[in-house]
Amino acid sequence: MPSFSSRLLAIMLKTFKFNQRLTRDLESDRHHARPSKEPSSRMIKTYDISITLIQDRIVYQWNNRHDHDQMTIFYMHGGAYFYGLNKMHFKLFEKLINSTGCSIIVPDYPLVPHASAEEIHAFLEESYCELCKDKNQNRIMLMGDSSGGGLALGLAQQLVQHHQLRAHRIMLLSPWLDVGMNNEMISDIQRHDPVLNRETLRKIGNMYARHLSIQHPKASPLYGSLDGIQRISIWTGTKDILYPDAVSLQEKVKHTSVTCDLHVYEDMLHTWMFFGLPESRQAISDITNHILA
Questions:
Q1: Where are the domains of the chain?
Q2: Confidence label for 65 from pLDDT (cuts 50, 70 and 90)
């Protein structure tokens, strides 16, 4: 049974129609994405944070001062390709750094409506190749939440094609894998999902794909090849309309040599690991253990 705080959060989100927020923001700011927040002054003082400019955009790197062979996480933030980095992302980075000693690379990639899937992927691939070229290939992970989860898998597919993939593992948190939102199970889950709205995500998905097919792997990596990828770990909740596609990815993996572990949290919402719930702490502990394994 979900915790009291998670049930209360779901009620509050439904009451305030949170799953209409993206619809409202998209309509009011149709020509302007919501840019990223910056790390707090406290975080800047506490951690060794460096900035690299790629294509005139910021790529953050949280460095470990003491261990130069630590795990490196190349992280792609979520936000439906419309919202930038937020405070919850920075809190997650802090937890991962403190518990694993990893370094984290975070590209502040361009957003729709100004950028398309092709432009975003080009930026991410250049950022990855530049900042991970001197890293131990056995100590690199790709990770992302929501749309960033889709980017993480899509980037891995592109890097394999270009013989550049050095990450040995991909970790996906409530990933958005098919921007067409075509899975038949989504309709049933939509009634219980207080965070996401299927039709709004379809609109964003079309903007993101632009002239590509909705099923092109750069837009919807669920349809891409998994050749060359070693291991995928997925965290998803059953009250998330993106949950069915996480299951579909696991089913697809069964027909390949890829190792896949799917962590399903009953009654959990989209990206619940960010919300400070008992189940959030459990998921972050699980994620941490997988990083250290």
A1: 4-292
A2: low
Tell me how far apart the alpha carbons of residues 157 and 142 are, in angstroms, rounded to a whole number: 11
Q: Do residues 243 and 275 touch, judged by C-beta distance below 8 A?
A: no
Question: What pLDDT digit, counting tens, does each position of 253-281 carry?
Answer: 998 999 999 999 999 999 999 999 999 99
Q: What is the 3-state secondary structure (H, E, C) of the chain?
A: CCCHHHHHHHHHHHHCCHHHHHHHHHHHCCCCCECCCCCCHHHHHHCEEEEEEECCEEEEEEECCCCCCCCEEEEECCCCCCECCCHHHHHHHHHHHHHHCCEEEEECCCCCCCCCHHHHHHHHHHHHHHHCCCCCHHHEEEEEECHHHHHHHHHHHHHHHCCCCCCCEEEEECCCCCCCCCCCCHHHHHCCCCCCCHHHHHHHHHHHHCCCCCCCCCCCHHHCCCCCCCEEEEEEECCCCCHHHHHHHHHHHCCCCCEEEEEEECCCCCCHHHCCCHHHHHHHHHHHHHHHC
The model's pLDDT over 124-168, given as tens digits with 9 standing for 90+, comes to 999 999 999 888 888 899 999 999 999 999 999 999 998 887 777
Is the distance from CB of 7 to CB of 266 less than 8 angstroms?
Answer: no
Give the CATH number of domain 4-292; options: 3.40.50.300, 1.10.1040.10, 3.40.50.1820, 2.60.120.460: 3.40.50.1820
What pLDDT is stored for residue 267 in this prediction? 97
Tell me: pLDDT of 29 over 80: no
Q: Please give the model's pTM, rounded to 2 decimal places.
A: 0.96
